[in-house]
Amino acid sequence: MPNISGIIKTLQNIMRKDAGVSGDAQRIEQLGWMITLKVLDDKDAEMELLNDDFVSVIPERLRWRTWAGDTEGITGDAMKAFVDNELFPGLQNLDVSDGAGGVNKRAVLIRDIFAGTNNYMKNGTIIRQVVNKLNEIDFNASEDRHTFGDIYESLLRDLQSAGNYGEFYTPRAVTEVMTEIVNPRLGEKVLDPACGTGGFLTSAIENIRAKDVHSVEDLKTLENTIRGQELKPLPFMLCVTNLILHDIEVPNVVNGDSLNREYTSIGAKDKVDVILANPPFGASVSDGVETNYPTQFRTTESADLFLLLMIRYLRDGGRAAIVLPDGSLTGDGVKERIREEFLKVCNVHTIVRLPNSVFQPYASVATNLLFFTKGEPTREIWYWEHKLPSGQKAYSKTKPIRKGEFASLKEWWNNRIENGQAWKADIDGIRENGFNLDIKNPFVKEEKISYNSSELLNMLSLSFKKSNELIEDLKRDLE
Fold first, then answer.
1. What gap in Å lies between CA 445 and CA 297, rounded to an integer?
2. What distance, in Å, lies between the first and last C-alpha atoms of the chain?
3. Cβ burial 400-435 (10 Å sphere, 16+ → b, else e)
4. How far are the Cα atoms of 181, 225, 304, 372 from residue 307, in angstroms, in the given order?
5. Using CA atoms, how far apart are residues 284 and 34, in angstroms rounded to an integer?
6. Nearest 5 degrees, angle CA 180-CA 185-CA 188?
7. Residue 187: predicted pLDDT
8. In sequence order, what are the beta bridge partners of 274?
């Protein structure tokens, strides 16, 4: 069995020799499209064995085995010319018809992936070295696929330090615990409208497969009920490959902006049973996107619009777990109106408050995990404060949040009592406070770090008084 971790490191070192590839983000994108084609070809080979009538949607000359499979095959300038002039144009203009008047979804996915992908490598000899190294991995071998799953996670974590791509990675411990609590089951429609590299979708797949998938028909049902959408090309490509590695033959993932849809056009046929998501926050939406939403809810803050969108997509009785920053829990004006609507149509039963450093180095803002069901109003909200491990001051890339840290939360979940980490707030108090959901732990006394002018003058006066008393005492002692 190959040392896949070693292979990936070798690949990255080989790419550093190519003058066209600059930085981690480009290396990951370059490695991404090559791995995607290798995975697709290995899957095609598996389908050919199972089905005599199977025909790949990729033309023979563009298939991985044709141009990359032979270690002594094309290289140098010929390889560079083939990739730039034949491979990419061919895949970007792939025939997506199914031969019966419809479209082939697998072909559409491949075309969409390569429409937003670039080949940065300039040296055809180095391209040959990379593909030869990749050929040491067989994605149809369960051991290779399992091992590569862990390596894939490390590639996704690398995105955290690759420019602006860290926003697309949610720590695996967080996605898994949210998924386990919501517990999606076979036949339920699961959606992540900002799916990034597919962390929540693969967590849902693993949760359902472990409990409910016992046949080929079950696997087909699972494939048809997992849905995602992602705007940026690189995470979209990584998400599709991620799902294919999880045996989803044709991932139901769309490359596009979920917010760029008329809010009222989301009808009964679009509704889903489960939403798991970490929508982008701290960014403005594309020009004009806010006009898709009712006048009283229009804003350019992405997290707030995504909250409205997810409420709309969820059916009555549906349940959700999402990540939101502190900024979405407070604020007046449109933010307050959105929260009021949220609490009116959903039972927001639990908010887990996370330390600031969970998403570092991408973001150091305080975040929260919100668990809710749609169809009845909120009457009270339970809060749980997640604490850093003993002796640890912050999370980091080398010391990330770990799933085992949520054991106390899961123990408390079905037997709720107030304690140093848990408290609750009723809707009347929340309403009186402008639907502010940023409710601090009442069991922790916070030092006051800001004062108004009157308080500062009083403190200064008290300080002078104490100084004068000390001076008088000193005089008396000297006398």
1. 35
2. 90
3. bbeeebbeebeeeeeeeeeeebbbebebeebeeeeb
4. 20, 21, 5, 12
5. 32
6. 125
7. 97
8. 190, 319
Cα 259–261–267 angle (5° rounding)? 115
The Cα–Cα gap between 257 and 306 comes to: 11
Torsion (CA) 372, 377, 380, 385 in degrees, nearest 10: 20
pLDDT of residue 165: 47
The Cα 334–Cα 139 span in angstroms is: 49
- Written as one letter, the residue type at 262 is E
Q: What pLDDT is recorded for position 371?
A: 98
pLDDT digits (tens, 9 = 90+) for 366-392: 899 999 999 999 999 999 999 999 888
Determine contact, residues 102/108, Cβ cutoff 8 Å.
no
Q: According to the model, what pLDDT value does residue 319 have?
A: 98
Instruction: Kindly report, residue by residue over 252-264, the tens digit of the pLDDT.
Output: 999 999 999 999 9
**What's the chain look like in SS3?**
CCCHHHHHHHHHHHHCCCCCCCHHHHHHHHHHHHHHHHHHHHHHHHHHHHCCCCCCCCCHHHCHHHHCCCCCCCCHHHHHHHHHHHHHHHHHCCCCECCCCCECHHHHHHHHHHHCCCCCCCCHHHHHHHHHHHCCCCCCCHHHHHHHHHHHHHHHHHHHHCCCHHHHCCCHHHHHHHHHHHCCCCCCCEEECCCCCCHHHHHHHHHHHHHHCCCHHHHHHHHHHEEEEECCHHHHHHHHHHHHHCCCCCCEEEECCCCCCCHHHCCHHHCEEEEEECCCCCCECCCCHHHHCCHHHCCCEHHHHHHHHHHHHEEEEEEEEEEEEHHHCCCCCHHHHHHHHHHHHEEEEEEEECCHHHHCCCCCCCEEEEEEEECCCCCEEEEEECCCCCCCCCCCCCCCCCHHHHHHHHHHHCCCCCECCEEEEEHHHHHHCCCCCCCCCCCCCCCCCCCCHHHHHHHHHHHHHHHHHHHHHHHHHHC
- Distance CA(355)–CA(172), nearest Å, equals 16
pLDDT of 144? 64
Contact 202, 247 (CB under 8 A): no
In angstroms, the CA 397 to CA 471 distance is 54
- Low-confidence stretches of the chain (pLDDT < 70) are 1-5, 143-168, 282-284, 360-364, 446-451, 479
Comparing CA positions, the residue from 413, 346, 415, 414 lying closest to residue 386 is: 413
